[in-house]
Amino acid sequence: MKIVFATNNAHKLQEVQQVLGSEFELITLRDCGVTEDIPENEPTLEGNALAKARYIYQRTGYDCFADDTGLEVDALGGEPGVRSARYATDGHDDQANKRLLLERLEGKENREAQFRTAVALILGGEEYLFEGVVRGEITTSERGEGGFGYDPLFVPEGYDKTFAELSAEEKNAISHRGRAVRKLAEFLKK
Catalytic site residues? Predict the structure, then answer.
């Protein structure tokens, strides 16, 4: 089955393809001629995922899905949340985002957090939402070389390694995006 995944993020594309497996062929935004940035102005992850999927569906007419992910830190009232990719700047500056997060958590004992992914699917003009959540805590410094974004700062519950220290297979088996995409895959296989 061919389906458009509304991303140009190579890391995300690789993660999702590994979870979906060979039964699905992911078409990227570039593959279908979409080169402009898709607005992400909604106040929720679900809203952003739906807005991106609707944009692609209206622009191309293809069945598609989009996701939005946020890191929600308990001691910061859910920040950075929907602004995770643009926490420190308007651009996607992972290093600045991680620095700001560590600064805001300095001196706080409660470092519990969760990664949450919302996936919006448009299939035959119908809209569907799927969610994946993984709880964990934020470290005091970066650890690991893998992953991307906040992965070097996040230790999932039941583990002593950050997402960046886990193999791609280990991370996909437990991650928020992996959980949401498995729900999507189960739905698509029906």
Answer: 68
